[in-house]
Write a structure and sequence with these properties.
- This is UspA domain-containing protein.
- It comes from Salix brachista.
- The chain has 116 residues and is an alpha/beta fold.
- It has three helices and four strands.
- Strand 2, helix 2 and strand 3 form a beta-alpha-beta unit.
- The termini are far apart.
């Protein structure tokens, strides 16, 4: 059986958690790899902004860990990627191509990058 790579966009909204649960129940097969991807907006360049960037990365990782907790009961392979990028979804698309994912799962909500 071929191992599939499934990317799930991690955002701090209920729709993103619902999308992950949907993927776990309806898309996931034994041996598949779930990649939890969180992309945060870049900060401007300065020492103060470097601290802000570090804080945003930490918060993104903590959020992704809470999504990983949802995955634990499904006994699946999970990896976490937290990266800086554009809010319009260009970085998400680039990461999906780079990973070679067979599926992208994102929760649809009123502030979603899909509407931009």
């Amino acid at each position: 059986m071929d191992v599939r790579k499934i990317v799930v966009v991690v955002e701090d909204v209920d729709a993103a958690r619902a999308a992950l649960k949907w993927a776990l129940h309806n898309l996931l097969r034994y041996g598949d790899l779930i990649t939890l991807l969180h992309v945060f907006s870049p900060a401007m360049n300065s020492s103060r902004c470097k601290n802000k960037t570090r804080l945003l990365r930490l918060k993104g990782y903590q959020l992704a860990l809470s999504f990983k907790d949802i995955c634990n009961s499904f006994n699946t392979n999970v990896e976490i990627i937290v990266t800086e990028g554009d809010p319009e979804g260009g970085k998400i698309a680039a990461m999906v191509r780079e990973i070679g994912a067979s599926a992208l799962v994102a929760g649809l909500h009123d502030r979603s990058f899909l509407y931009k």
